[in-house]
Structure formats: C-alpha cells, structure tokens
Design brief:
There is one protein chain. With 250 residues, this protein is of the alpha+beta class. It has 2 domains: 2-142, Jelly Rolls (Sandwich); 158-249, Arc Repressor Mutant, subunit A (Orthogonal Bundle). It has helices at 32-38, 121-130, 132-157, 163-173, 187-194, 198-210, 230-238, and strands at 2-5, 8-13, 43-47, 52-54, 62-68, 71-76, 82-88, 93-94, 107-110, 114-120, 181-183, 214-220, 223-228. The strands form 3 sheets. It has a 6-stranded antiparallel β-sheet. A 4-stranded antiparallel β-sheet has the order 4-9-6-7. The protein has a 3-stranded antiparallel β-sheet with strand order 11-13-12. Helix 2 crosses helix 3, helix 4 (163-173) packs across helix 7 and helix 5 (187-194) packs across helix 6. The model is unreliable at 1-6 (pLDDT under 50). This is Crp/Fnr family transcriptional regulator. GO terms for molecular function: DNA binding; DNA-binding transcription factor activity. Residues 161-227 form the HTH crp-type domain. It comes from Dechloromonas agitata.
C-alpha cells in the first residue's frame, strides 16, 4: 500500500466486478461488459477520521463512492463560519453536485475511518454520456440528496422542534445499515448539525445513556459507535412529548 500522506492512503485500483456493494452503487445498472471499461481508472482510497477529502472551491476533478464510513459536507458563509449541511454514508456519492460545475460545492471531511472509490471526473462524464442507465441512476441519487436536504432543514435544524427530538432523528440518520449501531460524532459535530451548544448535546446524550438508549461501544471498522435502542429512538423522534419526559420514563 502506497502512503499518500498522514491521513490518506491508496490501495491501488478498484475491482468493480468483485465489489460487494455494486448493487447499491451508482454503477449498479451498468452491464458487466461496460463495467470492464468503467472500472479501469478508479482508485481505492482510505481516509482517517478528520481527514479532508476536498475543500470547497477546489477544482472538481473527481467524484467518490463511499464504500465504508461517513462523511460530513460543510459550507462557509461570507464571514468564514462553517455549517454542516449534510452527511453521506456507505453507497452515497461524494461530489455529485459538482459534476456539471468547475468547483467543489462543499468541503468534505471524513467523520470516521472511510474507504472511497475515486472516479476521475472526465471519465465519469464520458461514461454518463454513453450510458442512459447510469443517467437514470444519477437522477435517482440527485433526488435522494434533495429529499435528504429537505429532511435536514425540516427535521434537524428547525428550532420549533425540541432539541432531543432532533438529536434522536439525527442519530437514526447516522444508523449503520439495518444494525443497532450508530456513528458517534464529536459533541461539536452534533451541535454544528443541530444548531445547539456542545454542552446541550452532552446533557442530552447523557440522558439517553442513563435511559439505556445509547451505549458507547468504542472503536471499530466504522470508527466510534453507539449501540442504540432503535425503537426507543424512533419513538422519541416521532413524539415530541417524550423529549420532555424524565429519562426513567422511556
């Protein structure tokens, strides 16, 4: 494995034929014959938690498929203040909103140890033009991103919804597949997403922990996780009145 820098390594070319995630990836509907040409220039990359994948306004020279881990997307206002606007998980495409732009629209940072497939932008655009099936898949991915953005604004950022309800909804969005594991972010990241202070996040997480809804599980392949009571989190996310109850009443 060739080391690129302290937080980023390249393990060589991807093999789309043996990828266990191909059915969920952007190239899922590409035939095996066409896939032979598609996967040749694609690199496997690994990023440590906290590593920057690209910065906002960087030249958009690639898109990235997430094979493992989680990524946060940041935007900056005119004063230089950052805001977490979305996060991406396994099966998502990073940089998709920059396919028809010259610059990256966000800064992308690995929240956890993350594995990506890097597809050169020129190759990606050429392949899109030749394969209608891929065009449809990209449209679906774009619609998913729009729905997630709408959900982000209405369910996570709105100050009219209790902070504990929004935290429960965020934790559910951070769920790893269909398991009971949830990505565990820093207090600053939780607060940055929800628009609340790290101190408030700490208090709410402590309440959920005291109620047995969240248990820290340390580090694993996906980084720091919680083992979560998914039904209990779901109940809180759907019923704001539960957010005002004592933890012992859950």
């Amino acid at each position: 494995m060739a080391t690129i820098n302290r937080t980023h390594t390249c393990s060589g070319r991807s093999n789309c034929f043996t990828c266990s995630l191909r059915s969920t990836m952007v190239c899922a509907d590409v035939s095996l014959e066409d896939l032979a040409a598609f996967h040749i220039p694609i690199d496997d990359l690994a990023f440590e938690a906290g590593a920057t994948i690209f910065n906002m306004a960087d030249q958009a020279n690639a898109v990235y498929c997430v094979r493992q881990g989680a990524i946060k997307l940041l935007r900056y206002d005119v004063s230089g203040n950052q805001r977490i606007v979305r996060f991406l998980k396994k099966g998502d495409v990073v940089g998709l909103d920059s396919v028809f732009a010259n610059e990256q629209q966000h800064t992308a940072i690995a929240l956890t140890p993350t594995q990506l497939c890097r597809i050169p932008m020129s190759h990606f655009k050429d392949f899109i033009a030749k394969h209608p099936g891929l065009q449809l898949r990209l449209l679906e991915k774009t619609q998913e991103a729009l729905r997630e953005t709408d959900s982000w604004l209405s369910e996570l950022v709105s100050n009219t919804v209790p902070a504990k309800v929004r935290l429960a909804r965020l934790l559910l969005q951070l769920r790893i597949g269909d398991s009971d594991r949830v990505h565990r972010l820093s207090l600053a990241d939780f607060g940055g997403i929800l628009g609340i202070t790290p101190e408030t996040v700490s208090r709410l997480l402590t309440e959920l922990g005291d109620a047995g809804i969240l248990v820290k599980t340390g580090r694993g392949l996906n980084g720091r996780n919680y083992q979560a009571d998914i039904p209990a989190l779901t109940a809180i996310s759907l019923d704001p009145s539960r957010a005002r109850q004592s933890p012992k009443t859950y």
